[in-house]
Amino acid sequence: MNPPIYMQAAFAALAGVSVDTVAGWVRTGAIESVKLGKTRLVRFPGVNQ
């Protein structure tokens, strides 16, 4: 089964962090993401350890 995929704002709310923090995690590769058009989607659980 595939893990759920969230928009960055929804993922930030679930994780209890700011959208800027999530964007930083995406930039550094700490979490998996995919770009669909202009929208960046985050896979959960997609945390690279």
| Backbone structural class | alpha+beta
Which residues sit in consecutive blocks of at least 5 with pLDDT less than 50? none
Individual helix count: 2
Shape: globular
Q: What is the tally of beta strands?
A: 3
Overall pLDDT confidence: 88
Describe the structure.
With 49 residues, the protein is an alpha+beta fold. It has one domain (5-47). Helices cover 37% and strands 37% of the residues. It is built from two helices and three strands; from the N terminus they run E-H-H-E-E. It has a three-stranded antiparallel sheet. Helix 1 (8-15) crosses helix 2. The longest helix is centred in the middle third of the chain and has 10 residues, at 19-28. The protein is globular, with a radius of gyration of 10 Å. It starts with a strand and ends with a strand.
Index terms:
globular
Which helices and strands occur, and which strands form pairs?
Layout: E1 5-7, H1 8-15, H2 19-28, E2 31-36, E3 39-47
Antiparallel strand pairs: 1-3, 2-3
Protein name: Helix-turn-helix domain-containing protein
Organism: Stutzerimonas frequens
Compact summary:
It is built from two helices and three strands, in the order βααββ. With 49 residues, it is an alpha+beta fold.
